[in-house]
Amino acid sequence: MSRALLDRGDEVAGFDNLDAYYPQVHKDRHLRDLKDEAGFRFVEGDLRDAAGVTRLFEEFKPQAVAHLAGLAAVRYSVQFPLLYGQVNVQGSVHVLDAARQHPVDGELPAVVLASTGSVYGADTPTPFREDAAAAAPLAPYPASKRAMELFAHSYHHLWGLPIAVLRFFNVYGPHGRPDMMPWRWTEQILAGEPLTLYAGGRLKRDWTYVDDIVSGFLKTLDARPGWEIINLGCGRPVENLEFVRILEQLLGRDAQIVDTPAPPSEPLITYADISQARRILGYEPRVNVEEGLARFVAWMRAERLV
């Protein structure tokens, strides 16, 4: 996201607490080609520090805010639910409150929030539409993101803060997290280690390539919608078993699959209705799973990660 903004001439202030959830070496890689850019400034800080977030707005006076920070990972949230309330809910409120108190030339900054398709839970008809209640998330992670969305609506309603909520669906690609399934499965297949697939790999996920997500995010920042919730997905769910089969072909190795029952935090399917993104943003995902995984594997090899 930062790379795309810089490439088109925007100035970017990056804010991150470099959390130890995954190793620092990967965070250094994310920042490697950004830190020397004249238009980029990196600030180490924490969303939970309201004063620090306020200082960020006072120093940089942003015209727009891309709120991608937070704790992800559904299963990790089951272990540490309190953290998700502190970071994803309270931390996001700090961002919203700083934004509404720091207009630039009399205009409030546009705020675009990264949410998740997992807010839809297990009882939403497919494909998931933005007007669904999303009232029964299955784990603290999606619950915290849904709470963030509700706070955001109140900030728009009371103070007119222009806000868009983007619900991401199963993002993968270069610079992903090392704990995410595409990365872990790639490592396990190459190492000959057992690979766990829930429900025989029949769970379906709306795998969405990172470049398509970035494209949708940029379009949203430029559109400055007053209030919208928008799905950003691929709109073509793929069984996890098929996803692994594609990786096997790319890597030239067979996976040692272990069939395990799905935990209660895992929905059977994620499936985005992206008609609203098409209508409002002109969004159109370009990269299918076969091409996206080929790019991902090539990136991992180029970075000597496998």
Average pLDDT: 96
Class of one domain in CATH?
A: Alpha Beta
Strand content: 15-25%
Number of helices: 11
> What's the main sheet like?
4 strands, parallel
Query: What is CATH's topology name of one domain?
Result: Rossmann fold
- Spans of at least 5 consecutive residues with low confidence: none
- N→C terminal distance: 24 Å
What is the CATH architecture assignment of one domain? 3-Layer(aba) Sandwich
The string of secondary-structure elements, in order, is HEHEHEHHEHEEHEEEHEEHEHH
Judged by helices, strands and strand pairing, the structural class is alpha/beta
Radius of gyration computed on alpha carbons: 19 Å
Q: Would you identify the CATH H-level superfamily of one domain?
A: NAD(P)-binding Rossmann-like Domain
- Helical residue percent? 40-55%
Q: What is the general shape?
A: globular
Strand order of the largest sheet: 3-4-5-10
Number of beta strands: 12
Describe this structure in words.
With 306 residues, the protein is of the alpha/beta class. It has a domain at 2-174 and 209-235 and 273-286: Rossmann fold, CATH 3.40.50.720. It contains eleven helices and twelve strands. The strands form five sheets. A four-stranded parallel β-sheet has the order 3-4-5-10, with helices on both faces. Strands 1-2 form a two-stranded parallel ribbon. Strands 6-9 form a two-stranded parallel ribbon. Strand 1, helix 2 (24-32) and strand 2 (40-44) form a beta-alpha-beta unit. Helix 3 runs parallel beside helix 5 and helix 9 (240-251) crosses helix 11 (289-302). The longest helix has 20 residues, at 81-100. The protein is globular and about 60 Å long.
